[in-house]
């Protein structure tokens, strides 16, 4: 079965998370992704463990961090700091449809691997640069780190418990969301640019920045500020504009109640045995509930604390009140719905036997995602790619290896 991006070849000069996430999405969609790595060390995340993928003898093979964003790629070791390595990279780029890179602004120009240099020999190239702050602006030369961008881009100003409560203060998200969202946006941008190329015959340069993405991904929060001029603050697990829409502590565990409209609130109150709350003018409508949240929420919390979470969840679900448990990852992957959706995949691995990974969430009726290969070992495909694409024979490749170019 043909895959959506079959026939598209990507030269992947990215490492760590944002760039590799983008190129892994392209690989999942059928693109041939050639991952260029430093000889001897490779992508930094190969060593960002524990935890590790281990072989049958228990020896570490790769860090789990690396495994998260590199399946379906071909690894080629190439030292682009050396002139001969740069020349080989340019030859590879000339045979590719896409180049993705996340070097500091201007770094690749000195290697002749910047957009202008490659577009001069391949005008159809789609070239995606991923940096912390973009190719322009006063911060362009700064290195970009997800944690810092979460702070600078406003996310941490709305994440964390209220300052006036125990544990209050700014809090980063538990996963590198600026990196991951940048990877998602970048993959979308690359596919859009490929579509444009099909119509016009020309490629283009894509300028992706973590800070841009972080500001954009705040959704209704950033638009709320622009509309009102009011700076939103941290509300912990509560919602800025909807009440009750937060975490509550039951008699034995935490649960989420996500009441989205007034009729749901009335049913919620009925389950709690507190019908009078739904009729109270202070709580009957969402704007009033938001206004009086400090009085309402403690009453709801007190009632929910009287019974176990499982009992509340059963009763709330039966009343069609949006709710849910808070699970750890062991519970997530044991969930029957997660299993039914096939969110855990197992891919054969030459050294580990197999590797457990998370499926791509995109579901296509005609061109399903295929998981053809695991994250590659360092330099696993160097000889194969150089022979196939550049016509180098075994002695030529061995000469490059002896000089530490590959």
UniProtKB/TrEMBL annotation:
UniProt keyword Transferase, yes or no: yes
SUPFAM superfamilies (UniProt xref): CoA-transferase family III (CaiB/BaiF)
Entries under InterPro entries matching the protein: CoA-transferase_III_domain, CoA-Trfase_fam_III, CoA-Trfase_III_dom3_sf, CoA-Trfase_III_dom_1_sf
Keyword Transferase: yes
Enzyme Commission code(s) on record: 2.8.3.19
Pfam families, sorted: CoA_transf_3
GO molecular function, one term: CoA-transferase activity
Gene3D superfamilies: Crotonobetainyl-coa:carnitine coa-transferase, domain 1, formyl-coa transferase, domain 3
Keywords attached to this entry: Transferase
Protein name (Swiss-Prot/TrEMBL): Acetyl-CoA:oxalate CoA-transferase
Annotated source species: Usitatibacter rugosus
Name of encoding gene: uctC_4
């Amino acid at each position: 079965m043909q895959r959506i991006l079959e026939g598209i070849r990507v030269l992947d000069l990215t490492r760590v998370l944002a760039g590799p996430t983008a190129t892994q999405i392209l690989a999942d969609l059928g693109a041939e992704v050639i991952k260029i790595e430093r000889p001897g060390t490779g992508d930094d995340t190969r060593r960002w463990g524990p935890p590790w993928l281990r072989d049958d003898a228990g020896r570490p093979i790769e860090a789990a961090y690396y495994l998260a964003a590199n399946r379906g790629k071909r690894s080629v070791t190439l030292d682009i700091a050396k002139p001969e390595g740069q020349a080989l990279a340019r030859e590879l780029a000339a045979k590719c449809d896409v180049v993705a890179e996340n070097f500091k602004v201007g770094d690749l120009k000195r290697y002749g691997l910047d957009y202008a240099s490659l577009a001069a020999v391949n005008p159809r190239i789609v070239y995606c640069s991923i940096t912390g702050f973009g190719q322009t602006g006063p911060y362009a030369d700064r290195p970009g780190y997800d944690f810092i961008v979460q702070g600078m881009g406003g996310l941490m100003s709305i994440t964390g418990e209220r300052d006036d409560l125990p544990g209050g203060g700014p809090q980063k998200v538990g996963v590198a969301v600026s990196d991951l969202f940048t990877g998602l946006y970048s993959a979308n941008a690359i596919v859009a640019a490929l579509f444009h190329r099909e119509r016009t015959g020309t490629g283009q340069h894509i300028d992706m920045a973590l800070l841009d993405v972080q500001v954009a991904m705040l959704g209704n929060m950033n638009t709320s500020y622009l509309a009102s001029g009011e700076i939103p603050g941290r509300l912990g697990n509560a919602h800025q504009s909807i009440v009750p829409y937060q975490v509550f502590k039951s008699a034995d565990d935490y649960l989420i109640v996500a009441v989205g409209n007034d009729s749901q609130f009335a049913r919620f109150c009925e389950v709690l045995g507190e019908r009078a709350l739904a009729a109270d003018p202070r709580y009957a409508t969402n704007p009033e509930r938001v206004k009086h949240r400090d009085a309402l929420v403690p009453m709801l919390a007190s009632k929910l604390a009287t019974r176990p979470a499982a009992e509340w969840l059963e009763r709330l679900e039966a009343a069609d009140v949006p709710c849910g448990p808070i699970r750890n990852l062991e519970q997530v992957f044991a969930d029957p719905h997660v299993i039914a959706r096939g969110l855990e995949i197992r891919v054969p691995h030459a050294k580990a036997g197999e590797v457990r990974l998370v499926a791509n969430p995109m579901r296509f009726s005609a061109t399903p995602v295929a998981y053809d290969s695991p994250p590659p070992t360092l330099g696993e495909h160097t000889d194969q790619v150089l022979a196939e694409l550049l016509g180098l024979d075994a002695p030529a490749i061995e000469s490059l290896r002896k000089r530490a170019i590959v």
